[in-house]
Amino acid sequence: EQFYLFVDAFRFEMAKEYVLLLEKRGHKVELTHAFTALPTLTSTAKVKASPVAEEVNTTSEIKDFTPFFNSGKPVIISNFRAELENKGFQHSIKKGFEPAKSYWVEIGNIDTRGHDEQAEMLKRTDELFDEISEIIDTAIEAGIKEIKIVTDHGWLMLPGGLPSSKIVKDLTVARCGRCAYIKEGVKTELPQLPWEWNSSVYIAYAPGISFFRNNEEYAHGGISLQECIVPEIKIQVEKDELLNSKISSHKWVNLRCQIETENTPDGFLIDIRTKYNDEKTSIVLSTGKSISGNKCSLMVDDSAIDSAAFIVLTNERGKIIDKTNTTIGN
Questions:
Q1: What share of the chain is helix, strand, coil (3-state, %, to 5)?
Q2: Residue 232 CA to chain centroid, in angstroms?
Q3: CA separation for the pair 84, 89 (Å, rounded)
Q4: What residues does 35 pair with on adjacent strands?
Q5: Cα(311)–Cα(315) distance, rounded to whole angstroms?
Q6: Is 219 within 8 Å of 294 (Cβ atoms)?
Q7: How big is the chain by its Cα radius of gyration, in Å?
Q8: Taking the model in full, what pTM does it have?
Q9: How do 146-150 and 3-7 pair as beta strands?
Q10: Which 8-state DSSP code applies to residue 45?
Q11: Is 253 helix (H, G, I), strand (E, B) or coil?
Q12: pLDDT in tens, 15-61
């Protein structure tokens, strides 16, 4: 069984920052790097990071930088999902996860927001991290033992706009902001490298950090290290996360919450937070949060009355084992 979590456009530096958060939460994490496919476009690179990469034809005809499977079908989303299913991978998470099955889960829209919002996208980093963490927590709660996070490409960001580089549109077959497929026989001084899915096809690249259009702050598709080096993150789930410990019930008596758990070792902790994966948002006034005999009682700040919150079960190191929604005082 394998569990892939594909995070779109997860640039290495951003992933490294996220790994620090995972380690702080007590996860056993391994961060390595890989070189993505060229050009660094989703249409070319996403499938390389997937478990169906070996099904792609390495003599593909180039069409908008999208390769073809050995079956002759283009690598578009419907065919990609069909190939995943053929390999035994589930790609829908509507019914939750099962430890005995393999999954390919896609999350995040860094790329879409980068193109739409440009440099403003960086303000959404915490939002993205929360989204990833929610999937990881859900998978662990379901009994998944190992999670591998992969991505398709990095990107460049320059507030105010990347420098522009000119290219004659009529001399290209296909063109993106950072790369172009030049018509056969056309001479160019632009650097050229083989396409990932057909080594006889050469792609030309905008030099340095330049862009084939003006006033763009966010871009990818080129050959800078920031675009080409991608993270691979492996999360190993430790035994204490597979104890089936869970929050079984809770009851509010004014501002005190009486909580009961199941299969939970003494010494595990209960917290009440407005943001489940951020211990800084705790609203608990009690000094003791330890579970004893599968029970714990906590007092919260009276300013939180009637507000929504999360009851969170963690191990001694603060790693989240289970969580549930609650309304303070109700």
A1: 25, 35, 40
A2: 11
A3: 5
A4: 229
A5: 14
A6: no
A7: 24
A8: 0.78
A9: parallel
A10: H
A11: strand
A12: 999 999 898 877 889 999 999 999 999 999 999 999 999 999 999 99
